[in-house]
Amino acid sequence: MADRPVTKLDKSEVLAGLFAVWDDITALLGGLPEAEWEAASPLPGWDVKALVAHMIGTESFLAGVPAPQPDIDVSTLGHVRNDIGVMNECWVRHLSAETGADVLKRFKDITDDRRKALTSMSADEWDAVTLTPVGPESYGRFMRVRVFDCWMHEQDIREALRWPSSDDQLVGPASELSLDEIAGTMGYVVRKRANAPEGSRVLFELTGPLSRSIRVSVDGRAQLVDDFGGQEPTATIRLDGLQFTRLAGGRPLCPARSQDIDLGGDKEVAAQVVEHLNFVI
């Protein structure tokens, strides 16, 4: 079987998005009262501090720093479902007793280290194939997954603190790259998860500041296409762009934005796709 082609991405574009979302998270958490660090997030079992600890843990792992030993068998916790979850929880528990200010300092320190390492990375290293959360892929694609993960967690933090992103705050390289990452999974979602029939042409119409059209054509296999070759979509799903990212990430809808989801064409197929949008492990 031929190796899957890997995604080659522009290093400066991906790093602009990654560094921007780290800056946004740092600014959002600066001076946050200690009690707010314990605000419950939309992710089961995690407060704001846990979300930041998780990001520290992933960047530490990428920097070659081993996970701390947990005080309990974290694999028995209800919200831990896989090996990645186990690693995340080791950091969450390790940092839970630290103050918010100390956790934020750790976040700044590790992301500063990662900025230097990523900036100095050669083009060959950036394009080299490595193990990633989406299978063997380029290191650059892995970093786009990091943009997506951190950007999603910024929105989780905002939900926890009841400071939802404004329209202006939603526009930028991090949200665009996150949407690119989500769009890249929609073939899998439409065909494998929602089981859309052969010949389906599914159009996602995203509205609001994250507006874009995502088209998936099922022709033997499902793939992203720029257009349907002059044919009409067989099923359409129209919703706010941020809400699309929330559903794709298995999160509850954001209360601050429109929660309308309009289905068109074959509404049964459209409803199946919406029901199976969550692709996050």
From TrEMBL:
InterPro entries: DinB/YfiT-like, Maleyloyr_isom, MDMPI_C-term_domain, MDMPI_metal-binding
Residue ranges occupied by any Mycothiol-dependent maleylpyruvate isomerase metal-binding domain in the UniProt entry: 20-158
Gene3D superfamilies in UniProt: dinb family like domain
Gene Ontology MF terms in the entry: metal ion binding
Domain MDMPI C-terminal: 176-271
Pfam families per the UniProt record, alphabetical: MDMPI_C (PF07398), MDMPI_N (PF11716)
Source organism superkingdom: Bacteria
Protein name: Mycothiol-dependent maleylpyruvate isomerase metal-binding domain-containing protein
Source species of the chain: Mycobacterium nebraskense
